[in-house]
Amino acid sequence: MQPSHDDAQLKTAIIENFGTPCLVIDLDIVERNISKAQAICDAAGVANRPHIKTHKSPILANRQIKAGAHGITCQKLGEAEVMADAGITDILIATNLLGAARSGRLAALQKRLPLKVCADNAISLAEYAKAATQAERVIDVLIEVDTGQQRAGVETPAEAFALAQIIKAEPMLNFAGLLYYPPLDGWPRTQVFHAELSAELAKIGMSAEIISTGGTPNLANIDKLKGSTEHRAGTYIFNDRMMIEAGMASLKDCGLHVYSSVVSRGGTDRGILDAGSKTLTSDTGGLEGFGHIIEHPTARISKFAEEHGFLDLSRCNSKPEVGDIVRVVPNHVCVAVNMVDQLVAVRGGEIVEIIPVAARGKLV
Amino acid sequence: MQPSHDDAQLKTAIIENFGTPCLVIDLDIVERNISKAQAICDAAGVANRPHIKTHKSPILANRQIKAGAHGITCQKLGEAEVMADAGITDILIATNLLGAARSGRLAALQKRLPLKVCADNAISLAEYAKAATQAERVIDVLIEVDTGQQRAGVETPAEAFALAQIIKAEPMLNFAGLLYYPPLDGWPRTQVFHAELSAELAKIGMSAEIISTGGTPNLANIDKLKGSTEHRAGTYIFNDRMMIEAGMASLKDCGLHVYSSVVSRGGTDRGILDAGSKTLTSDTGGLEGFGHIIEHPTARISKFAEEHGFLDLSRCNSKPEVGDIVRVVPNHVCVAVNMVDQLVAVRGGEIVEIIPVAARGKLV
Which B residues 63-82 touch A at CB under 8 Å? Predict the structure, then answer.
């Protein structure tokens, strides 16, 4: 593909101002992605609670909220702290917190603002009650349910019911709802689970105010759980090769490119990018190769050293030369963003903004 | 394995002071590893130039120098900037720099101190000459040679010779030597390559002052290249499962553990750690499972979500419970360290120091 004049100018601006590798987002695409997901949620009558794990940026989280999202989802307390510092007040932390609970940080943040937290076990509930007591503020708890992903979450309505009873008995905990992450083909059985659990809860006067589902590919299923109140999706804001593979995006919907220089050409069929596993990460997402190169779609990023991406150019007619700058669509954009401290934002081929990945590296 | 009293106390101190996951290094082991590699280099009469990619910490780099290393190796200019800020003056950047050269940062650092850089192509050499001219200081260049790794480096003595001639003709470049990274079984052919190239260079009055080899597993081969002057190894400072697999370390030589909490137990044979691909990374190093759990050696970290490590406990007699803290030896320690902003250092079971990973995230 012959680069357009604009592409070449932007590449020069990126390498001269920032060097390579450099993570660049196109705000026109990002805003279109934000609007599209919001419209899907709106059409289904389901609130949008984007997961910030993909961008880890309060600036972008606030743009999602401005576009209609009613709150955000975080995976780590440290992410929630950064988002709270930026004025975001409706935060769900969608995981069992233990490290953050035991280090006192959960209590400290709960004192500042009312969080929504999740649990799939009684030990987490005990930690949350302790933190709420320390914070002198009742904490909202969702029960996490697994209907087939084999990730976190209780596997039976009876287990969920038992946790609901513990929450009911503990004055510092408030039962806020149920957290689902149905497998793509698991919505019917999620519905069965939910109906059974809701009936049990109703018998003791309990009901879930929030019924939350998740995942970007599941935006296609968003209206399939009767009673659901909100959806958590993350990757849609940028998209990546996994989302293309899942049928949720095309290349034109991929709003983040890793600009990388070809730094070596060893032999006819080999090349090396200055982006390796410390930039693109070793997440394959189950795909062939470690990224799609816009300028050389038949080139394959076949393996990594830490700072090098090794190119198999055997299928390329036109091969990149040392010094060429290429744009890589990552397999998994969430982990690539997590490697950097900032994103360079462009619009119409011009660099317009530097967006800090402020919640990067918040492991706890 | 029943934890000793000390282990339990340290775990409590880690989770209460920092939360989990948390990267913890044991300074007694780290110092032993530093001494051991230094002794190997000393015994071979080869200078030690550790690669800081593993720890990215000026504090630890300075300890390696204090123990006898004569300088350091970096992979990115941004790493060299951080190390220079900490007073380190003998720095080799072991890669073709393009992004950093074109953004002007190479020239700026070369103005501050005389760097050693590497090239395997004429375009990089032209960039180095430009940077040296800007910096008003001749730059030392090593020619990178590939004798079988299929990574960066010229593949024939003739190509290396051609680059040496370019360097000789360019007044702002100084030919400083040859950079090798022999495959484990490739030392004999590296010797042949080196002899042939040296003979050619001698004909035009050139000789390599620095003859550099690399790799922790290659510490076992260090005396096998006649004339070599220095060795670059990185991983030895902490070691990991890959180094155990390579026969270079035992579990007791692994100086870095990822302390992680069991946050969920779904079903008899499943468990979830609060360390996922954003902590341990998806680098397998060709090994089975994504880490070794000290307390449960038969448990298998079978896959990752971004913030969760999924445990297969089917082979465990004693299974961890929610709330248990376990210590994970990563498959590849260099990429795990690269995920965090600090390491917690312990000695004799006590927390003694916080070591910033100051050069983390320096992609350019």
Answer: 75-77
Q: What residue type is B7 in one-letter code? A: D
Environment class of residue A147 by beta-carbon count within 10 Å: exposed (0-12), middle (13-18) or buried (19+)?
buried
pLDDT of res. B1: 44
Strands (E), chain A: 22-26, 47-48, 72-74, 91-96, 116-119, 139-145, 173-180, 210-214, 230-232, 256-264, 270-273, 292-293, 300-304, 309-312, 325-329, 342-347, 350-356
Whether residue B363 lies within 8 A of chain A, CB to CB, comes out as yes
The mean pLDDT value for A326-343 works out to: 98
How far is residue B323 CA from its own chain's centroid? 33
Do the chains contact at B20 and A99, CB–CB below 8 Å? yes
Task: Dig out the tokens for B92 from the structure.
Answer: 């080799």
Contact A306 B53 (CB under 8 A): yes
pLDDT reported for residue A5: 61
Q: Which residues of A touch B261 (CB under 8 A)?
A: 98-99
Under an 8 A CB cutoff, do B21 and A105 touch? no
* Distance in angstroms (rounded) separating the CA atoms of residues A160 and A122: 10
Q: Searching chain A, which residue's CA lies closest to the CA of residue B311?
A: A151
What pLDDT was estimated at residue A1? Answer: 44
Q: Would you say B283 and A282 are in contact if contact means Cβ atoms under 8 Å apart?
A: yes
Dihedral sign, Cα of residue B55, residue B58, residue B64, residue B69? positive
A22, two tokens: 């450099």
| Residue A59: both structure tokens together | 């600036």
The domains located in chain B, with CATH, are 5-26+241-356 (2.40.37.20), 45-237 (3.20.20.10)
pLDDT given at position B102: 87
To the nearest whole Å, the CA of A112 is away from the closest chain B CA by 19
Q: How confident is the model at residue A359 (pLDDT cuts 50, 70, 90)?
A: very high
How many Cβ atoms are within 10 Å of B122's Cβ, its own excluded? Answer: 13
Residues B53, B75: Cα–Cα separation, whole Å: 7
Block means of pLDDT (10 residues each) for chain B, 364 residues, are: 72 96 98 98 98 98 98 98 98 94 94 98 96 98 96 96 98 98 97 98 97 98 96 98 98 98 92 97 95 97 97 96 97 98 97 98 96
ipTM: 0.96
Give A211's contacts (C-beta < 8 A, 6+ positions apart): A177, A178, A180, A194, A225, A227, A228, A229, A230
Cβ distance A363 to B278 less than 8 Å, yes or no, reads yes
Structure tokens at A154: 């209780």
Please report the DSSP string for A147-166 in residue order: SSS-SSSBSSHHHHHHHHHH
Query: Which alpha helices (DSSP H) does chain B contain, by range?
Result: 5-17, 27-44, 58-66, 77-85, 99-102, 105-112, 122-135, 157-169, 187-203, 241-245, 333-337
* B21 in contact with chain A, both atoms CB, cutoff 8 A: yes
Distance CA B271, CA B290 (A): 14
Q: Kindly list the residues from chain B whose CB atom is less than 8 angstroms away from the CB atom of residue A146.
A: 266
Whether B333 and B256 have beta carbons less than 8 Å apart is answered as yes
